[in-house]
Design goal:
Helix content is 67%, strand content 0%. It contains seven helices and no strands.
Length: 131
């Protein structure tokens, strides 16, 4: 029952969009309200409250209003995640080559076939049929 507040917020956004359409307004504001209503209904269906879903609705609304600016702002806000910024865990980014080689050699020695004591006898003759 946590998603009721998001569903109510979505209904309010739909009502405001319908009221604006009835008044003769058909601009980006109506699209923004309709997009926010869809996001709020969906996030309410997932069980999120209005406080948790509002950031998603605002992101969607700003994308409808100005897609280019929103994409640039979103990318710049998340730049450290996109590039692989410092998360404080240096061990996560470091590769230990010696440990990798040791593990490879252990696996190789475990899965190696048994060596034959004598090599197989070579066929006498020449070619495929032994001529």
């Amino acid at each position: 029952m946590r998603g009721w507040t998001s569903s109510i917020g979505g209904a309010v956004c739909v009502g405001a969009a319908m009221w604006m359409l009835a008044q003769g307004h058909s601009d980006k504001t109506v699209l923004v309200l309709a997009g926010a209503a869809l996001v709020l209904f969906f996030r309410g269906y997932q069980g999120l409250t209005i406080g948790e879903a509002a950031s998603d609705a605002m992101l969607g609304a700003s994308f409808v209003a100005d897609p280019k600016r929103t994409a640039i702002n979103y990318a710049s806000d998340r730049m450290d995640n996109l590039i692989g910024g410092d998360d404080g865990n240096e061990e996560h980014h470091r590769i230990d080559v010696d440990k990798i080689m040791d593990r490879y050699l252990d696996e190789r020695s475990r899965n190696a076939p048994a060596a034959e004591a004598t090599p197989p006898a070579s066929p006498f003759g020449f070619g495929r049929k032994g001529i």
